[in-house]
Known about the structure:
The structure holds two protein chains of two kinds. Chain A is mainly α. Chain A has helices at about 5-10, 20-40, 45-60, 70-90, 95-105, 110-115, 120-125, 130-140, 145-155, 160-175. In chain A, about 70% of the residues lie in helices and about 0% in strands. Chain B is globular, with a radius of gyration of 21 Å. In chain B, helix 9 (about 225-235) runs antiparallel to helix 10 (about 240-245). Mean pLDDT of chain B is about 75; it is low at about 30-75. The relative contact order of chain B is 0.20. Chain B starts with a helix and ends with a helix. The chains are: A mainly alpha, B alpha+beta. The interface between A and B is large, with 50 and 60 residues.
Amino acid sequence: MAVEGEVSERLPWATGTAELDWEAAYAELLPRVYNFFRYRLGNDAVAEDLTSRTFEKAWTQRARYRRDLAALSTWLFSIARNVAVDHLRAQRPHLPLEAAEHVAAAGTPQEHVAHASDLERLAALLKRLPAREQELVALKYGAEATNRAIAALTGLSESNVGTILHRVVLELRSAW
Amino acid sequence: MDDQFLHDLRRAPSPEFAARLRANLRAQGALSPARGRSLAAQWLAAAAAIAAVSFAFTFPEVRAGAAAFLDLFRVVNFAGVRFDPQRLAGLKASGVGLPSLLGDIEPLTEPTPPVSYASPAEAGQAAGIELKLPAWAPPGWTLAETVVTAEHSARLTANTAKLQTVLDALALDDVRLPDGLDGQAATVHLPAVVVMTYRDGPRALRLIEARSAEVSFPAGFDVPALAQAGLRILGLDRDEAYRMAYAIDWRNTLVVPVPVDAASFRQVNVAGTEGLLIERATGSRQLLWSTNGQMYALAAPLGAAEMLEMAQSLQ
C-alpha cells in the first residue's frame, strides 16, 4: 500500500507553484529570528526591535527572494544577520565615554555576570569572543539552525562550524 | 553548562510583541488576519494521522527501512522530520539491511490483496469504519474506484546487535541504546484501510481513511531513548535528535520522515484540527490528519487550497 509511490508513478504530477507562504513563514520563523537576536545581543527589547526590522525588510524585499537558490529560512537569516551587523555598527560610534568607566568599574567579568540572568551572563561571556563565534552561537542555539544551515549562511564548512561551536561551548563552560 | 542548557535559554516572543508585529506586517499586506497559532502546538499536536508505514511520505526504501523502525511509536498524531535520503541509500549500498535493523519482524496475519467494492458504503462496512465522503471535489474529479486493504499485524522483536551494526556503519558513536532493549517485542496492528481513487482524465487522487493504528510495547520501555537513536539514523544531528526525542509524545505521534531534497512540510488547519501538509518539489501533495480516532490522508496533484477545501468538506 505504497500510497505516494503508486500515485506518483502513475500520474503526470502538476508543477508546484513557487509562491511564498508568508503566514507559515511568520509562524515558523518568528521565534527563531527573535531568539537569534536575543542570543546575539542579550537583550529582549533590542531583539524585538531587530526582529521587526528583519520581517519588515523581508517583506519589502520579497521580490528578490528566489526559492531555487535558498530556503526561505536561509534567506531570512541572511537578512537578520545584516540587521544585526547594522545595529552593532550603529552602536559603536555612539558609546559614551562613561560606558568605558562603567566597564572598568564593574569588577571582574565573573563578578559582573554573577548577578545577571543566565542570558545576560551568556551575552557577557560571548562578548569576549570574536564576532564570528558570537554569531555561530546565536544561529545554533538561538535560531536552532543546523550546522549545515549555518555553513550555508556563513560560508564556513559544516565540519568547521561543528568544530568551532564545540570549542566555543567548552570555553563558555569553563568560564561559566 | 552544556548544549541543552544553551538551547533552554530560548524564549518564545511575548504575545504582545508577536501581535504587534503581526499587525504591522498585516498593514503592509504581508499576512492574513491573525489566527494565533502556536508553534509548539503545531509541532507537538500535529493533527493528521494515517495508520501504516506505507503512508509515510518517503522513498520506498526508506519506507521499508527507517520508517519501519519508527513505526513503533506511531499511534495517532503526525509530526514531520527531515532526513537525508542519501544517508540511508549509502547504508543500504553498504549492505546493512534496513528493514530488519530492529530485529526480527514476524507477520501475525497473512497478507491479502486489496478488495474492490462497488460503493464507498460497502467498503466502509467491510473495513468497519464510518466512512466520510467529500462534499466538494475540484471540478472534473469523480470517484472511480474504492478498495479496502485488510487489517494486519506484526510482531517486532528488538535485536540490539543488528541495530548497533547500523549505528556503527553510520559512525553514530554518541548513541546509546536503552538498557534491556534486546529481545523486547512490540506488536503493531494496522486496521483495514479504505482507499478511494478519484480521477480527472489521466490524473488521479486518493482519499484514504482508516481507524488509528495501534502499537503495543512493554510498559516502562524507554521510548525517547530509542527514538533518539532512530532520529540519529535518519540524519538529525545530536542536538536536534535529543530535543525532538524528548519533546514528542511518542505514544500518540506518528513521525513522517520527509526527504530534505524532495519535499517540505507544514502544519495546516483541517476543519478545526491540525494536519500535516507535505509538498514535494514536483508539486504533488499529501495531507494527513486525524479526528475522533479515525485517520485520513489525501494524496493528490492539487494545490494546497484545493486539498484543504476537499479535506474540510468530508461529511
